[in-house]
Amino acid sequence: MPSKNMLPKGQRRRTVKHEYRATRGVEEPTPLPIPVLEIDFDDDAEDHIHTFTAAPEAAGLRLDQYLAQAIPDISRARVQLLIEHGQVRVAGSPAKPKQKLHGGEQIEIEGTPHPPPLHAFPEDIPLEILHEDKHLAIINKPAGMMVHAGSGATDDSRNHGTLVNALLYHFNKLSGIGGDLRPGIVHRLDKQTSGIILVAKDDSTHRKLGDMFAQRHVEKTYIALVHGHIAKDNTTINLPIGRDLVRRNRMTTRRSADSEGVRTAVSHVKVLERLTTPYGPFTLVEVRIETGRTHQIRVHLQSLGHPVVGDTLYGAPHVIGREGNTLSLDRNFLHAARLAFTHPQSQKSMQIEAPLAPELKSFLAVISASSNTD
């Protein structure tokens, strides 16, 4: 069978060298960025209809691809769910999953995307419990463990091995305020961040803890190792944080403070030690955060030009060190080390500390062994 790439019959002796030469070394034009739509999906507004016009830059894109790029807070899987449920119309007609856009079409989205219900289930996973009473528990979470499955997950590997799965196995009762997917979860840590996380066993404790976090009555202190030497011994970073509209898995401090979805964020950075090592300069810091925004410490330290070691998402090098003298760390060097608060039921002052994870201790020992400290 002739190749689909062959010239039509009768033209197969025609040379295409001149066409090749004309395009050799010419890069394909970079597609124009898709303008962002500031749409807030409110779970309570089931009958609300969002209406907008597809941007000219949408020409040639699939509908689901365009919407996933234009609406930063919704994944392509959730977009496809909306389309499958008949909640998206293009030019007044129900949208098709593989529909291509020309640009300029009127698009309507009705309601919010609802994945099939997902229930967390218990799994026998070891937990390091730092404190437990009848109202709450405090856990030292290892790096690599997600706190809970994502809302778009199904009953597969993404709903296994989470902190919630382990909590359901170890404790008879957890607060139900977080729903079936997040029982007991009052706050979160990134997957690759280790350390202290607070869990509520009953709804009353959960509500009171939630208010304490919102009113900044919980003191959260982290230990981080960053690349380079931070100049000042004490620095306060007061930069609002919002989603990066180009790389949607990142957050950024570079959006306007009055943009939708951008929230205030305050971090206090204290230098513990500056190290000059054969693997490069590093600074060990203690970070106390007033707010709890997504990726806050990682983004704020990057804004200083000092990314967290191992945090390649925010600019840390994949290879730590120089040629012939390198190290590796398959996680972020970020650890929730201390939590101080007043127990919401007993009113006792609580201060809980979690030692550095073994892999962080080992890494620090290696670079410290041959370092000059300041």
TrEMBL record:
<dbReference type="GO" id="GO:0120159">
    <property type="term" value="F:rRNA pseudouridine synthase activity"/>
</dbReference>
<feature type="domain" description="RNA-binding S4">
    <location>
        <begin position="61"/>
        <end position="122"/>
    </location>
</feature>
<dbReference type="InterPro" id="IPR002942">
    <property type="entry name" value="S4_RNA-bd"/>
</dbReference>
<dbReference type="GO" id="GO:0003723">
    <property type="term" value="F:RNA binding"/>
</dbReference>
<dbReference type="InterPro" id="IPR006145">
    <property type="entry name" value="PsdUridine_synth_RsuA/RluA"/>
</dbReference>
<keyword id="KW-0694">RNA-binding</keyword>
<dbReference type="GO" id="GO:0000455">
    <property type="term" value="P:enzyme-directed rRNA pseudouridine synthesis"/>
</dbReference>
<comment type="similarity">
    <text>Belongs to the pseudouridine synthase RluA family.</text>
</comment>
<keyword id="KW-0413">Isomerase</keyword>
<protein>
    <recommendedName>
        <fullName>Pseudouridine synthase</fullName>
        <ecNumber>5.4.99.-</ecNumber>
    </recommendedName>
</protein>
<feature type="active site">
    <location>
        <position position="190"/>
    </location>
</feature>
<dbReference type="InterPro" id="IPR020103">
    <property type="entry name" value="PsdUridine_synth_cat_dom_sf"/>
</dbReference>
<dbReference type="InterPro" id="IPR006224">
    <property type="entry name" value="PsdUridine_synth_RluA-like_CS"/>
</dbReference>
<dbReference type="InterPro" id="IPR050188">
    <property type="entry name" value="RluA_PseudoU_synthase"/>
</dbReference>
<comment type="function">
    <text>Responsible for synthesis of pseudouridine from uracil.</text>
</comment>
<dbReference type="Pfam" id="PF00849">
    <property type="entry name" value="PseudoU_synth_2"/>
</dbReference>
<dbReference type="InterPro" id="IPR036986">
    <property type="entry name" value="S4_RNA-bd_sf"/>
</dbReference>
<dbReference type="InterPro" id="IPR006225">
    <property type="entry name" value="PsdUridine_synth_RluC/D"/>
</dbReference>
<dbReference type="Pfam" id="PF01479">
    <property type="entry name" value="S4"/>
</dbReference>
